[in-house]
Amino acid sequence: MARVVVDVSLKPEILDPQGRAVQGALGRLGLEGVADVRQGKQFVIELEGELDQEQRAKLEELAGSLLSNPVIEDYTVSINESTDSGSTAGAN
Amino acid sequence: MSARIGVVTFPGTLDDIDAARAVRIGGAEPVNLWHADEDLAGIDAVILPGGFSYGDYLRCGAISRFAPLMTRVIERAHEGMPVLGICNGFQILCESHLLPGALARNDGLHFVCRDQWLRVENSNTAWTTAYSPDSEILVPLKNGEGRFVADDYTLDQLEGEGRVVFRYLRGNPNGSYRDIAGICNENGNVVGLMPHPEHAVEDLTGPSLDGVGLITSVIENYVAQESFA
């Protein structure tokens, strides 16, 4: 069993109005010193068996096409296998 | 024979009926298409209407891009068929990479619904030849994720090549970069815009009749091609 986590966030230069609204709320609720908040999304994908090279390549491709839009978003892919705790990360 | 203009319905599309009515009022024959179809039914042009296809899940337009019909639309768009994306349709065209840039959440976070003035900055596209250059039109606008964004290189390229087709006038509703409301591809056959010209085709329901020109433009160009054929 392998668990793949894909994190997607807006590129730093793209205004994140949701993050800004959360930043305001954090301040109003008593958290001082919040310099910035960026809101992203996370996909947790569970795959049966061990990942082969083809699946790894396909995951990387889909993280950069379906799961994120490279025009406005960055992504990282982390792979955790039960027998292999190593991870890979890529940013586009 | 009148031009046949397809109107695509995805699960969650809202404005297909209005788009089809606009096509009829403009003088063409609307052809209803379903996202799962693989055949474009001999259409001469196609409209991707507004709404919330696939519930806007993942990103607006991100899943629709992979619909079976879109594969054919993308092929035909590259061959020169006129394609118009309105609102969610514009988002689908950007996700399909038929148009550059992306549509992000409005800077004010609010869903904006109002009548909006636009300037038609390019009256040479397949969908805008019926407008005189720099005409100002009034059409409804309604979106939550309508902020057009792209990197500076892309924005400069769009401006330099005259590919900004519509620009917001008298107030930018959503923080779109450079007040951009609509753009086209290099050949001018693919046009996308966030506001809704299909809601401005009848006195009873629209703020103007300014939206009809998109349909009459594509018909004029179709008739011109037919007479040369």
How would you describe this structure in keywords?
heterodimer; A: 92 residues; alpha+beta; Mth169, Chain: A; three-stranded antiparallel beta sheet; 2 helices; 3 strands; B: 229 residues; alpha/beta; Rossmann fold; nine-stranded mixed beta sheet; two-stranded antiparallel ribbon; 5 helices; globular
What does this protein structure show overall?
The complex is a heterodimer of chains A (about 90) and B (about 230). Chain A is α+β, with helices and mostly antiparallel strands. Chain A is about 25% helix and about 30% strand. Chain A contains two helices and three strands; from the N terminus they run βαβαβ. Chain A has a three-stranded antiparallel sheet with strand order 2-1-3, with helices on one face. Chain B is α/β, with parallel strands linked by helices. Chain B starts with a strand and ends with a helix. Chain B is globular. A nine-stranded mixed sheet of chain B has the order 2-1-3-4-11-10-9-6-7, sandwiched between helices. Chain B has a two-stranded antiparallel sheet with strand order 5-8. Chain B is built from five helices and eleven strands. Chain B has a single domain (about 5-225), classed as 3-Layer(aba) Sandwich (Rossmann fold), CATH 3.40.50. The chains are: A alpha+beta (about 90), B alpha/beta (about 230). The interface between A and B is medium-sized, with 12 and 20 residues.
